């Protein structure tokens, strides 16, 4: 062990001193993947990344700052630093790394809420039932909690719903500007974001096009907490309509362009109903832009396939391949005009409702 009082290692532990472990150990490490996820969750919940500034700190100081016991905190930090989240220094202090900084709440690219979301309490109920989901092809959440995932989240797990909304806020804030930069909506006078979360995409598009009107449709509890720019008194409020609703039931919104981003990841019936409602609402010649992560075109298969399995567990859904997305859009009656990358993780399927 490297502490302030023990002989120093020439290179801190877990920092590349070890050769790659043999397959038998690598498999053991993989089987213990839950320990890594739990350790990241604990670090995020304790707020260790926020307590550490630019200077390395002794564990005792960090423990006092996050109200934890120093000895178990050292063990926790040693566990995550094996993965490059914090780095133990030769004098036993801990310093930030590129990854640990992303756990800070104030980092502009913060992944704190994404980390919490991926490890929420319900996920620990659901993962042990993955074999069951693979056998049946159905979600396990309804059997676990007696209701659909988003209904469960909003009715029974408000803290988890809040983490979800914050995680979505982080990731959609980061991608909304890229979506707005990619999409050329000149010639259109209105845009609707279906299942648009808190409305970052619609807000970015209204900022890009000062004469455009917009609509945000999402579940009631979600739009209540829409981006302040869209709410009464906000800079874009007079150009936006907020519609609480269920896009599988009805889309009472007329617009020239419909955006559907990271929604069509649930069961096929829900995807078909949502697309049918968009086509009915927009009518012939409406433009429909579907934006999704694709499992066959991604810089991280590990992340994309993990999300894909989580979607199977919670909504009986899936991340799409280019082909499975094309099939669903075409089956709904849309014509796909173009598929283009928004960023390395997201692709836009630009479609038209035929005349
Ligand atoms: C993965 S998030 C994507 C949010 C947003 N489009 C984005 O890309 O940031 C899925 C969204 O679908 C919404 N949602 C789930 N079921 C819905 C339904 N039946 N009708 C409308 N929105 C729904 C959720 O509330 C959530 O905001």
Rg = 23 Å
SS content category: alpha/beta
CATH class of the largest domain: Alpha Beta
DSSP helix fraction: 40-55%
Task: Supply the number of helical segments.
Answer: 17
GO molecular function, one term: methyltransferase activity
Domain O-methyltransferase C-terminal: 127-333
Keywords: Methyltransferase, S-adenosyl-L-methionine, Transferase
Region (Disordered): 1-24
Q: Could you walk me through the main structural features you see in this protein, from its secondary elements to its overall organization?
A:
The protein has 355 residues and is α/β, with parallel strands linked by helices. The chain has two domains: 23-112, Arc Repressor Mutant, subunit A; 121-352, Rossmann fold. The protein contains 17 helices and nine strands. It has helices at 23-31, 33-46, 48-51, 59-66, 70-81, 98-101, 112-118, 121-126, 130-136, 141-145, 149-156, 158-182, 200-208, 220-223, 268-282, 301-315, 322-332, and strands at residues 87-88, 94-95, 190-194, 213-218, 240-244, 257-261, 287-292, 335-343, 346-352. The strands form two sheets. The protein has a seven-stranded mixed sheet with strand order 5-4-3-6-7-9-8, sandwiched between helices. Strands 1-2 form a two-stranded antiparallel sheet. β6, α15 and β7 (287-292) form a beta-alpha-beta unit. α12 (158-182) packs parallel to α13. The longest helix has 25 residues, at 158-182. The chain starts with 22 loop residues before the first helix and ends with a strand. It binds S-adenosylmethionine (SAM). Residues 150, 168, 172, 195-197, 218-219, 222, 246-248, 261-263 line the site of S-adenosylmethionine. Residues 1-24 are annotated as: Disordered. One of its GO terms (molecular function) is methyltransferase activity. It holds the Pfam family Dimerisation.
